[in-house]
């Protein structure tokens, strides 16, 4: 007999967020509606599933996010056009009580996401997303649940990861 108990964690799962991102990148009219700026990223806030936060983002050639996390939210993103590269850390970092960490040699991961490809991640994910193209914009859809309470921004020099800032949601919404 199926359980009628609610899921332990409300809201869409990371897999459901990824499915939303993949469906949304297939909406060619929506993707074409986002203005492309040659100098900086442009974005449009979207209605995500189940109370999630979602964004359509355009990435000019050579731009990226820098290293960051999502303040404990799970998420997903998918590429609509162009190609994005995600560099991530395959380790769960403590969220508080440190300013600088030395990373082990085997924690770096990198994946290339062409149009239609995406990835989901859990609440402790640390990464940076880059458009490494010298001449082509990339466009992607991102979704997070719960809506981002904050983002921690990091700098990285070799194996050293340093917490540089914590941005509150009010700073980018």
Q: Give the CATH superfamily.
A: Jelly Rolls
Output the CATH class name.
Mainly Beta
- What CATH architecture do you see? Sandwich
Largest sheet entry: 5 strands, antiparallel
| Total of domains | 1
In helices, the fraction of residues equals 10-25%
What is the residue-mean pLDDT, rounded to a whole number? 93
CATH T-level topology: Jelly Rolls
Please, how many helices?
2
Beta-strand content:
35-45%
Integer-rounded radius of gyration: 16 Å
- What is the first-to-last residue Cα distance? 44 Å
Spatially, the strands of the biggest sheet line up as 1-2-10-4-8
Q: Which word captures the global form? A: globular
Indicate the low-confidence ranges by residue numbers. Answer: 1-8
Can you describe what's shown?
The chain has helices at about 15-25, 30-35, and strands at about 40-45, 55-60, 65-70, 75-80, 85-90, 100, 110-115, 120, 125-130, 140-145, 150-155, 160-170. The chain is mainly beta. The strands form 3 sheets. The chain has a 5-stranded antiparallel β-sheet with strand order 1-2-10-4-8, covered by helices on one side. Strand 11 and strand 12 form a beta hairpin.
